[in-house]
Amino acid sequence: MKRIAIIGDFNQNEKSHVLIMESIKEVAEEMNGEMEAQWIMSDEADVSEEGLSMFDGFWFSPGSPYRNAKNVLSAIQYARENGVPALGTCAGFQHMVIEFACNALGFRDADSEENGAERADAVISRLSCTLMNQKEQLEMTDPNSPLARTAGADKFIGEYRCNYGFNESFRGAFQNSGEITAIVETKNGCFRGFELKEHPFFVGTLFIPQLDFKGDDSYRIIKAFINAVLNME
Hints:
Strands 2-1-3-4-12-11-10-7-8 form a 9-stranded mixed sheet, with helices on both faces. A 3-stranded mixed sheet has the order 5-6-9, with helices on one face. By secondary structure, it is of the alpha/beta class. The chain has a single domain (2-230), classed as Class I glutamine amidotransferase (GATase) domain (Rossmann fold), CATH 3.40.50.880. The protein has helices spanning 15-30, 49-52, 69-82, 91-103, 146-151, 171-175, 220-230, and strands at 2-7, 35-40, 57-60, 86-89, 111-112, 122-126, 135-140, 155-159, 164-166, 180-186, 191-196, 202-205. α1 crosses α7 and α3 packs across α4. It is built from 7 helices and 12 strands. The N and C termini lie close together (11 Å).
């Protein structure tokens, strides 16, 4: 049986949290896969190699700031460096950006403005216009990328619950890293998601695909994530 760790601070009143569990169960059953999902609060996560190796996939949930962001970043780094399927949505995306900037791009002080620190390397910053309860049309920079094929189209609708997002000042560093196969962006070119090359599945989205539960657009990303977990050897 495959095991997924959902890492974040669960709130039963948050629809995007409840739908994580429902979507995993729905997709696993649809694929006739045996799967167990365990929600782990960020301040209770065992981020030792032994603890993390118990899981075949990780979902980093919405809901920032996390109680223990360091634990979340450690788990993201483990998934990225060890080829373990990982999906980060909303706050999960934000911390995937921070971890990648810090450990892959060399911005050692990478962080989010939401954490209150004034940092030169604030790769996550407050959005000029809130995306709380908003939707946008999105498109892939590479329509032939695995992520674009996953979504089934190079354009789709994304739904949000956030006030913070990618700091566009770092766009060049991310695009020129040579490690990103696809970027999801708005029609105005704002960075809303990314996928790493040469990884079974490492995708971060500022939008929340589980809000498209059973839909035909961004929800397909969840199906691809579950499929990647089920196919882990």
